[in-house]
From TrEMBL:
SUPFAM superfamilies in alphabetical order: Homeodomain-like
Species annotation: Nonomuraea phyllanthi
Domain of life, source organism: Bacteria
Taxon lineage: Bacteria, Bacillati, Actinomycetota, Actinomycetes, Streptosporangiales
Signal peptide per UniProt: none
Keywords: DNA-binding
Record bears the keyword DNA-binding: yes
Pfam (any one): TetR_N
GO molecular function: DNA binding
Protein name: TetR family transcriptional regulator
Keyword presence, Membrane: no
Length: 185
């Protein structure tokens, strides 16, 4: 990918988080980036092409962030150690794992756009599958691992949709309270 294309996509995520999908207008993005509309059309096939690229970009970043965070925990690690490391990564100004404004904007957009809904569905399933893999070694079944994976995931979603959203420090504190419940073997 080119640097300019990445700038368009990264700025689009910022605008989506700040203004929702209605803010994703070519002229406004161009002005924010100090780039021409011609640059936009060089990199994207119109607004629909940009939307698809933006969604793919967000999906790629989100999945990569979680998978990388889990993989970077020193192995062999207990389930609690993995969740403790994930908890440490939730902090202000680190939008890799917790970006409530963007999560809310994407979920709102998904309520009326089937393409966005498909991306949101894949994101939810992929994130849950990653958490389920962490749990699987300490529970008896895939179903139990999925149920256990739902608890932190649903807390995260709830933290984003409460008005105003729970900040990163508060969410980290909530997860720290849950860590003693995670098996340490």
């Amino acid at each position: 990918m080119s640097a300019a294309r990445d700038r368009w996509l990264d700025e689009g995520l910022k605008v989506l988080a700040e203004e929702g999908s209605a803010g994703l207008r070519i002229d406004r993005l161009a002005a924010r980036l100090n780039l021409s509309k011609g640059s936009f059309h060089h990199h994207f096939d119109g607004a629909e092409g940009y939307k698809k690229a933006l969604l793919a970009h967000f999906e790629r970043l989100s999945i990569h962030a979680l998978e990388t965070a889990i993989a970077e925990v020193e192995q062999p690690a207990s389930t609690r150690a993995v969740f403790a490391e994930l908890t440490k990564l939730i902090r202000p100004n680190n939008t890799d794992l917790y970006y409530p404004q963007l999560d809310v904007a994407l979920r709102a957009w998904a309520t009326w756009d089937p393409d966005v809904r498909a991306v949101q569905s894949r994101l939810d399933e992929t994130r849950l599958a990653a958490l389920q893999r962490v749990w699987r070694s300490v529970v008896d079944s895939d179903e139990e691992a999925r149920t256990n994976a739902l608890l932190p995931y649903l807390i995260s979603i709830g933290a984003t949709v409460i008005v105003p959203p729970i900040d990163a420090d508060q969410l980290r504190e909530i997860y720290e309270k849950l860590l003693p419940l995670v098996p340490d073997h």
